[in-house]
Design goal:
10 helices, about 350 residues, ABC_transporter-like_CS, Rossmann fold, binds magnesium ion, binds iron/sulfur cluster, about 20% strand, AAA+_ATPase
């Protein structure tokens, strides 16, 4: 297996005329070829910012991106173009990302040309791209304009265009959330098929944790610009550790969700937390999360300590002042939570 690390650590700020928003802070993630990593969070959690930082669309105020271990200078120049070719972005709204006055042929040809891949048999390359995204027979689609296609077909064209660069990674920002519910699954299945056949690393950004479970190998949860929990998707959705992730799963019953049946092993109303207190062994508390309402905090002045503490039903004194680092949850390899409940030193 070839690993494809894209790593970002540090802090990024979007600076406006009068204020600085800490959109994402201390975000670190590694994408691996042949795996889908979901980045889940509410709108405003910073998940799109992470994708745009990785794609080099936003200037960063710190941190770095590494590709195969080499630090990428995202500023500009040849090195960045080489990186940008390997890391392609897919946006939420395929209608907005395709030019309405140009045909499918134009979009795909241009992508192949930009990336120096418009070889001798351009027609063959175009047909291959369309077949890859299951728009077959290709002749039926190649000379169509975006408005002549359905939403799902447009998103497939956008994916084909990204594949025109022969990328190693796709950054897909809510790639199905604007599509009809009935065709979402088809597009996700296509991405999964591409992941396997082309050995792609995929970053799947979504607000829908149910779809992350269905589609992603690994899941990371973001809250207020920070990553709060990560691990394999099955563990995160079946045994969420962070109180915020539990809240997300609790509020997941969304008519649009992809996996219809609630999982009987996930108790959506209550959950157990192990509360760590020195000298007290493994006390278990039954906590109801349903009462925890509220809004995500402003990123201009994020709360001190754990950013989730104003909404957290099990917040402790230290949570209001001390920022929790990542702790191993201990129930599955690689499962971590940035929450003081899992402070091994106190357990
Ligand atoms: Fe809640 Fe404290 Fe954990 Fe934050 S660190 S999620 S406030 S228990
Ligand atoms: Mg977004």
């Amino acid at each position: 297996t070839k690993h494809f690390p894209v790593r970002r650590t540090g802090r990024a700020a979007l600076t406006g005329p009068r204020r600085s928003i800490q959109a994402v802070d201390d975000v670190s993630l590694t994408l691996q070829r042949g795996r889908v990593t979901a980045l889940v969070g509410e709108s405003g959690s910073g998940k799109s910012t992470v994708a745009r930082l990785l794609a080099g669309l936003y200037p960063r105020t710190g941190g770095d991106i590494r590709l195969h271990g080499e630090t990428v200078n995202v500023k500009r120049g040849k090195a960045f173009r080489a990186y940008a070719r390997r890391v392609q972005m897919i946006f939420q709204d395929p209608f907005a990302s395709l030019n309405p006055v140009h045909t499918v042929r134009y979009h795909l040809t241009r992508a192949l040309k930009i990336h120096g891949r418009a070889g001798e048999d351009l027609e063959k390359s175009l047909r291959e791209l369309l077949s890859r995204v299951q728009l077959t027979p290709p002749e039926r689609y190649i000379d169509k304009f975006p408005h002549e296609l359905s939403g799902g077909q447009r998103q497939r064209v956008a994916i084909a265009r990204a594949l025109g660069a022969d990328p190693e990674a796709l950054l897909a920002d809510e790639p199905v959330s604007m599509l009809d519910v009935s065709i979402r699954l088809g597009v996700l299945n296509l991405l999964r098929d591409l992941k396997e056949r082309l050995h792609l690393a995929i970053l799947y950004i979504t607000h829908d944790i149910a779809s992350a479970r269905y589609f992603a190998d690994d899941t990371m949860v973001m809250y207020a610009g920070r990553m709060v929990e990560g691990g394999d998707s099955e563990t995160i959705t079946q045994r969420p550790a962070h109180p915020y992730t539990r809240l997300l799963i609790e509020s997941a019953p969304d008519p649009d969700r992809i996996t219809a049946a609630p999982d009987p092993t996930v108790d959506n109303r209550h959950f157990h937390v192990k509360v760590a207190a020195p000298g007290v062994d493994n006390r278990h508390f039954h906590v109801k999360v349903a009462d925890s309402g509220g809004e995500p905090p402003s990123l201009i002045e994020p709360p001190a300590g754990c950013r989730f503490h104003p909404r957290c039903p099990v917040a402790m004194e230290r949570c209001t002042t001390e920022l929790p680092p990542r702790f191993d949850v201990g129930d599955a390899p690689g499962h971590w939570a940035a929450c003081w409940l899992y402070d091994g030193a106190a357990r």
